[in-house]
């Protein structure tokens, strides 16, 4: 039996989740009494293997093929690794690239697929996966009776593996069939900077879907004005075209770490939190006492933003707009 | 522009839990649930309808796996411009505790094999079960190409070249430009377009559009397709890890306390 993890990298760097995978994989391997193997597919595989060689990793397999992620290559390579190396648990990141190949591997090898695990346990031969549903309002335990499985893990849930390892590094010939590669990555682009860099701000007032209407933005704009803050937002506000892309905080937006992050009408979805959890002080205003944002907040107001924000504007000598 | 193309859109009616909901066993009681078209699928429908508007002869078919109640959701897709719809349901599906990715991919896969679309658009994830996997698993099931987390699609290339030139939204504001041969499944990310509201005319027209309902048997499958090796053994509200200090009182009191903190932290000059 083996626990097998597949590293994630982009444009020359291993992504943080790769080292978290080693920790999650080692824990599972310990519980199941198995070895932990890691694979790295494409890119500067030798350098990556070197970095992944941390404590607790028994073996590293490198598939030397191409530079960047290509889902056809990853799906073929991972399938081939699973089929040839006696893998029981394939653990991959629930990253955007993970989303682009892991379900295909599960389907190819005909194993169940469980995504976005926040905890893994192995009890009496049963793998127990903890995951969230309904916008993080509910947690479930999913049990899989003695069978192999593909599971993807959420980033930043496990600490990165540390220490030097003595894993055996070997090259794996995945025998990639080029004729079946139906996708071609032609390049990368970065979102343009725009008028402000929210990652530089000391005080961010951040607005979410709770604002309801574009016209209501006037309210937070007034708050930003009187407090000299910078305005940022969660994704739906940008999706709706109410604020430009460079204002979006989160996984696909900007990483910010201001002195104070004031989240107004933001639920605290994992992809949002990924971009702001390192803020020094987090304050949340939300009508829902169970909103996940309160889990990471230092100060909280359970209340209606349309009541609280006007009062706050007045606190700083402003006049709330009529909305 | 090239004619004769078929786009299939997978749409899910998602359950939304109400504040103050209760869990009984491994389920949330129906009284605490409301239902809505999955946010990501709303964008997928819009993308399909925009393709149809740009092309000469593009048919848009919406497909869902869902109970009778979900006809409301699928009518919403029809009102926005889908031409017809397919709804899959069966007692065996109703009895299943959880529709896992494999089951959904097999059921939808049979529809894909019958309809033979050039392009399938699905959502990145369903907001309730949060698998984020059905689209890619479906592609694999039917031997289509795919791309996950697509936030831009070049309509012209789809219609004229039979290639999907997409942007995949990666982490940290980086986008990957990728070309995918058709037929393909794309999982659509929010923000790719501006979903329309259905017009009154659209809503009226939707009433006369066809929704075919297929059981597992109609699809030529057997009931074991609904079986799952995943068992939900526990469901609970996550324990709040909050050490937040809450400001109580009326809005003015809450705001006053918050203002004090902001002054304390010296982020707002007085
Ligand atoms: C691949 C991927 C990448 C993503 N990247 C990002 C990202 O970079 N950034 C991001 O933000 N999201 C991202 N998301 C989306 C994310 O999953 C959530 O959908 C999003 O963060 C929700 O935004 P929200 O909190 O504003 O809205 P909701 O989740 O709808 O929350 C609105 C909140 O407002 C509260 N509210 C409503 N009315 C009021 C009121 N009157 N007063 C006070 N509170 C009120 C509600 O209780 C609720 O908690 C991504 C998703 C995916 C799949
Ligand atoms: N029951 C369903 N009926 C139709 N489409 C679905 C269903 N479940 C999932 N999908 C599609 O697959 C996408 C991803 O869902 P999931 O993998 O469950 O997170 C959704 O956005 C839908 O487009």
TrEMBL record, chain A:
GO terms (BP aspect): fatty acid beta-oxidation using acyl-CoA dehydrogenase
GO MF term set: electron transfer activity; flavin adenine dinucleotide binding
InterPro entries noted in UniProt: DHS-like_NAD/FAD-binding_dom (IPR029035), ETF_a/b_N (IPR014730), ETF_a/FixB (IPR001308), ETF_alpha_N (IPR033947), ETF_asu_C (IPR014731), Rossmann-like_a/b/a_fold (IPR014729)
Residues making up the signal peptide according to the UniProt record: none
Keyword Flavoprotein: yes
Keywords (A to Z) from UniProt: FAD, Flavoprotein
Residues in Electron transfer flavoprotein alpha/beta-subunit N-terminal domain copies: 3-185
Name of the protein in its database record: Electron transfer flavoprotein subunit alpha
Family: Belongs to the ETF alpha-subunit/FixB family.
């Amino acid at each position: 039996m083996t626990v097998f993890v597949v590293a994630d990298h982009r444009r020359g760097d291993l992504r943080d989740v790769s080292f978290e995978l080693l920790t999650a994989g080692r824990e599972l391997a310990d519980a199941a009494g198995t070895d932990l193997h890691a694979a790295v597919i494409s890119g500067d595989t030798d350098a990556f293997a070197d970095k992944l060689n941390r404590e607790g990793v028994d073996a590293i397999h490198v598939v030397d093929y191409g530079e960047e992620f290509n889902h056809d290559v990853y799906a073929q390579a991972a399938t081939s690794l699973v089929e040839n190396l006696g893998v029981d648990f394939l653990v991959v990141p629930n990253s955007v690239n993970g989303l682009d190949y892991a379900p295909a591997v599960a389907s190819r090898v005909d194993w169940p697929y469980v995504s976005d695990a926040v905890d893994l346990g192995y009890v009496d031969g049963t793998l127990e996966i903890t995951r969230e549903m309904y916008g993080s309002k509910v947690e479930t335990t999913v049990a899989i009776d003695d069978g192999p499985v593909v599971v993807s893990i959420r980033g930043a849930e496990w600490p990165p593996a540390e220490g030097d390892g003595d894993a055996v590094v070997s090259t794996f010939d995945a025998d990639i069939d080029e004729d079946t590669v139906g996708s071609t990555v032609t390049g990368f682009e970065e979102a343009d900077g725009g008028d402000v860099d929210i990652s530089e701000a000391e005080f961010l007032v951040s607005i979410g879907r709770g604002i309801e209407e574009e016209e209501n933005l006037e309210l937070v704009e007034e708050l930003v004005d009187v407090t000299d803050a910078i305005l940022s937002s969660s994704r739906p506000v940008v999706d709706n075209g109410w604020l430009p892309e460079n204002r979006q905080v989160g996984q696909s937006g900007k990483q910010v770490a201001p002195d104070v992050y004031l989240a107004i009408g933001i639920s605290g979805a994992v992809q949002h939190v990924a971009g702001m959890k390192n803020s020094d002080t987090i304050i949340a205003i939300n009508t829902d006492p169970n909103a996940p944002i309160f889990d990471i907040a230092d100060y909280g107001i359970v209340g209606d933003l349309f009541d609280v924000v006007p009062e706050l504007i007045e606190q700083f000598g402003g006049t709330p707009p009529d909305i | 522009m090239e004619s004769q193309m078929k786009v299939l859109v997978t749409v899910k009616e998602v359950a939304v839990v109400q504040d103050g909901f209760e869990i009984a066993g491994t389920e949330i009681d129906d009284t605490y649930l409301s239902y809505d078209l999955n946010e990501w699928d709303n964008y997928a429908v819009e993308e399909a309808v925009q393709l149809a508007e740009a092309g000469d002869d593009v048919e848009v078919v919406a497909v869902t796996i869902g109970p009778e109640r979900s006809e409301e959701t699928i009518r919403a897709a029809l009102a926005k411009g889908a031409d017809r719809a397919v709804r899959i349901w069966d007692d065996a599906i109703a009895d299943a505790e959880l529709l896992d990715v494999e089951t959904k991919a097999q059921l939808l896969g049979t529809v894909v094999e019958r309809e033979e679309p050039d392009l399938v658009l699905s959502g990145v994830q369903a907001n309730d079960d949060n698998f984020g996997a059905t689209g890619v698993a479906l592609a694999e099931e039917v031997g289509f190409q795919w791309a996950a987390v697509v936030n831009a699609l070049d309509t012209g290339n789809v219609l004229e070249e039979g290639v999907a030139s997409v942007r995949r939204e990666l982490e940290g504001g980086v986008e990957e430009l990728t070309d995918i041969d058709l037929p393909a499944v794309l999982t659509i990310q929010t923000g790719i377009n501006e979903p329309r509201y259905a017009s009154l005319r659209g809503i009226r027209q939707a009433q006369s559009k066809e929704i075919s309902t297929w059981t597992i048997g109609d699809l030529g499958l057997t009931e074991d397709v609904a079986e799952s090796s995943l068992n939900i053994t526990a469901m609970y509200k996550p324990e709040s890890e909050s050490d937040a200090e809450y400001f109580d009182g009326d809005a003015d009191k809450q705001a006053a306390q918050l203002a004090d903190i902001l002054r304390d932290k010296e982020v707002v000059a007085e």
